[in-house]
Write a structure and sequence with these properties.
Layout (H helix, E strand, L loop, with lengths): L4 E2 L8 E6 L6 H17 L4 E6 L10 H9 L9 E4 L3 H11 L5 H17 L17 H8 L4 E4 L2 E4 L14 H6 L14 E4 L8 E2 L3 E3 L11 E6 L2 E6 L1
Parallel strand pairs: 2-3, 3-4, 6-7, 7-9
Antiparallel strand pairs: 1-11, 2-10, 5-6, 8-9, 10-11
Helix pairs in contact: 2-5, 3-4
């Protein structure tokens, strides 16, 4: 049974949002979270339910390929009306490496940040050179990753992978900050014009602040995969 607490913002009537933190190739945890969402919706139906994944689908964990294959099918647990999957900095690292394979820096950065595990999950032999990585990856997976949005605004919330630059209007935020920022965002007490729901910075438990909600709880580092549940003016959490 979900336990609810007051939320720092609100959704409209008869709406619910399920927002899932950084997955990092942990397919079994993702499937378990989706099952928990379906069970919650079966027990507590709602008029409009949306599922949002906050990016960092890949790298470090055991099955990046499986996660991308699953999400590229636009899975909708029973009762979900719409699924949105955002771009994370790890997807950006992968795409940069594939787009500039002859530039030494981009492939190296991806490999040392979990790209080696991701390529292994796609069964790419270690001896394959960066210029040939893309040819070993399913075209549908690459098309899905290239088509991910950076953010989603819904009522009093902004959903994004990493966070925002304090003091900059939401409509003028830069791509790099949306994907990578930590400070000064994490310590900011400013009113951003929307409560920012984000991942990117792992913590032992979800962080609920007046201006942000952080839900990267280190699924690939021995923690859990967290799903934030938002409805009306309250929030709860599911995890696996």
């Amino acid at each position: 049974m979900l336990e609810f607490a007051p939320a720092p913002a609100a959704l409209g009537p008869d709406q619910r949002v399920y927002a899932v933190g950084d997955i990092h190739g942990c397919l079994e945890r993702l499937l378990a979270v989706h099952a928990a969402i379906a069970a919650d919706l079966a027990e507590r139906p709602v008029g409009r339910a949306m599922l949002i994944h906050l990016g960092d689908l890949i790298d470090r964990g055991p099955d990046s390929a499986g996660v991308v294959d699953f999400l590229a099918g636009e899975p909708r647990p029973a009762g979900i009306g719409e699924t949105v999957t955002l771009l994370g900095n790890h997807e950006a690292l992968m795409l940069a490496a594939l787009d500039a394979p002859d530039a030494d820096e981009a492939p190296r950065l991806w490999i040392v940040n979990g790209g080696a595990e991701a390529l292994h999950s796609w069964l790419v032999p270690r001896q394959v050179e960066p210029k040939d990585w893309a040819a070993h990856l399913p075209a549908a997976h690459l098309a899905f990753l290239r088509d991910r949005p950076l953010s989603l605004r819904l009522d009093g919330y902004l959903f994004v992978h990493a966070g925002i630059r304090p003091g900059v209007p939401l409509e003028h935020q830069e791509r790099h900050d949306l994907l990578w920022i930590r400070e000064p965002f994490l310590s900011s007490k400013a009113d951003h014009g929307a409560v920012v729901v984000h991942g990117h910075t792992p913590r032992p438990a979800p962080e609920v602040r007046p201006n942000r909600i952080g839900i990267d709880t280190g699924a690939v580092m021995g923690g859990v995969l967290t799903c934030l549940v938002l409805e009306a003016d309250r929030l709860g959490f599911l995890s696996a």
